[in-house]
Design goal:
Structural class: alpha+beta
Oligomer: single chain
Distance between the termini: 59 Å
Strand content: 25-35%
Strand order of the largest sheet: 17-16-15-20-21-13-14-19-18
Largest sheet: 9 strands, mixed
Shape: elongated
CATH architecture of the largest domain: Sandwich
Number of strands: 21
Radius of gyration: 30 Å
CATH topology of the largest domain: Jelly Rolls
Order of helices and strands: HHEEEEEEEEEEEEHHHEEEEEEEHEE
CATH superfamily of the largest domain: Particulate methane monooxygenase, b subunit. Chain: A, domain 1
Bound molecules: copper (II) ion
CATH class of the largest domain: Mainly Beta
Number of domains: 3
Helix content: 10-25%
């Protein structure tokens, strides 16, 4: 019998271990693949994401910069980013301090609103707090819709040389210098202990009375609910009253203690900051999407576009971006790939017309194909009840200057 139990426990431990390993595997992906393909394609187009440096020590500064375009194809069933949105960094736990963040030059410690179809350039300055290896993602928390995540960049944080504990010193408005890592901790511990002691004492009283839920439930069944008051003895009444009075006294005492210890406080600040959006630099290229198909077997998206070049010089299409995946046109060979950047298909884009001359209107086929479609679970877009796609095309003039704009429309699946 014992052996059997031991065997079962062993199996259970093994299973638990297996589950942990599986969960850990999932945690590495941070949900970047979990979100609906249509949501990743039609909400926010993140690009030029740069995390630097990629190797730091505890206490060092890390800067995250990048740009994003809010999609004109924003799903109608999703709460809009034009209401309330908050820029943050997605890392596991409080492993960094966020020292500063800005969008289009405006300080962004509060929430804002992003009108659709515009460009936003952001910058976030972090200080590494805990050693480890992190997948750092810029993230937008959209009110009522949840978080929209950019792709991640691996960042290594090593222990600092001295091994000294991390300090986060600030000077308060009253001129006092405090370390936020430890400030007020004694008070937190003391008050928690006091309340835990109260709770345990109350439980102990009823445990010693040896009458908890089930015996009392049975008694009430015997007596009938109109005689339930008889369960309460005089002693119970006195003890409960004492606990009640002590709880009220502790609440009042806690309040007075805090008022006395921290006489000058201001409430947590909230509010909406306004940001001036930047217009998309379309560079005189007019795009009409004729139709688009998603080829399941070929893991590729084909777009038939009609392009009109209203600019002075020739234009060449260098990149298509959707759901944080970059498909680069190797013939144009423009567009920087940053250190540590993921989800880039270096030769994933083919363009049927190499150069669009000024004044010309041409039909162009764009094919974005790569195994990344499969790897990032983008094939799910064919299960979408409103089959639409959106993405960004990036193009260059003869001097290598970059322009871009969003393309989008209906997409038909192709099963053959
Ligand atoms: Cu990640």
């Amino acid at each position: 019998m014992m052996k059997l139990i031991a065997g079962k426990t062993g199996l259970r431990t093994l299973l638990a271990g297996l589950v942990m390993v599986l969960l850990a595997g999932d945690a590495l992906a941070h949900g970047e693949r979990a979100q609906l393909a249509s949501m990743r394609m039609r909400t926010v187009h993140w690009f030029d994401t740069k995390v630097e440096p990629l190797n730091v020590k505890v206490g060092d500064i890390v800067t995250v910069t990048g740009k994003l375009v809010t999609s004109e194809w924003w799903p109608k069933h999703m709460p809009s980013i034009e209401e309330t949105v908050y820029l943050n960094i997605g890392v596991p736990g409080p492993t960094f301090l966020r020292l500063h963040s800005e969008v289009n030059g405006v300080p962004m410690m509060r929430s804002t609103a992003f009108p659709l179809g515009k460009v936003y350039e952001y910058k976030t300055v972090l200080r590494a707090r805990v050693a480890g290896r992190y997948h750092v993602h810029p993230i937008l928390n959209v009110k009522d819709a949840g978080s929209l995540v950019d792709k991640g960049t691996w960042l290594e944080v090593a222990e600092n040389d001295s091994g000294a504990p991390f300090v986060n010193e600030i000077t308060t408005l009253t001129g006092e210098t405090i370390d936020l890592e430890t400030y007020g901790l004694d008070g937190v511990y003391t008050w928690h202990l006091i309340w835990i002691a109260m709770g345990v004492a109350y439980l102990l009283y009823w445990l010693i009375r040896k009458e908890l839920f089930i015996p009392r439930f049975i008694r009430i069944r015997e007596l009938g609910s109109d005689r339930a008051n008889e369960l309460m003895t005089k002693k119970d009444f006195v003890v409960s009253s004492l606990f009640f009075t002590t709880a009220l006294a502790l609440i009042l005492g806690g309040y007075l203690w805090a008022e006395n210890k921290y006489p000058i406080t201001i409430p947590l600040q909230t509010g909406l900051v306004e940001v001036e959006p930047i217009e998309i630099p379309t560079g005189g290229l007019e795009v009409v999407v004729d139709h688009a198909t998603y080829d399941l077997a070929g893991r590729s998206l084909s777009m038939q576009l009609q392009l009109t070049n209203n600019s002075e010089g020739p234009l060449r299409i260098g990149e298509f971006l959707t759901a944080n995946i970059r498909f680069l046109n190797p013939d144009v060979n423009e567009g920087e790939i940053y250190e540590g950047e993921e989800m880039v298909s270096k030769d994933g884009l083919t363009v049927s017309v190499d150069t669009i001359e000024p004044g010309q209107t041409v039909d162009v086929e764009l094919v974005a194909s790569d195994a990344l479609w499969e790897q990032y679970r983008m094939t799910g877009l064919i299960h979408d009840p409103d089959s639409r796609f959106a993405g960004m095309i990036f193009y260059y003039d003869e001097n290598g200057e970059r322009f871009f704009q969003e393309v989008g429309g209906a997409v038909l699946p192709n099963f053959f």
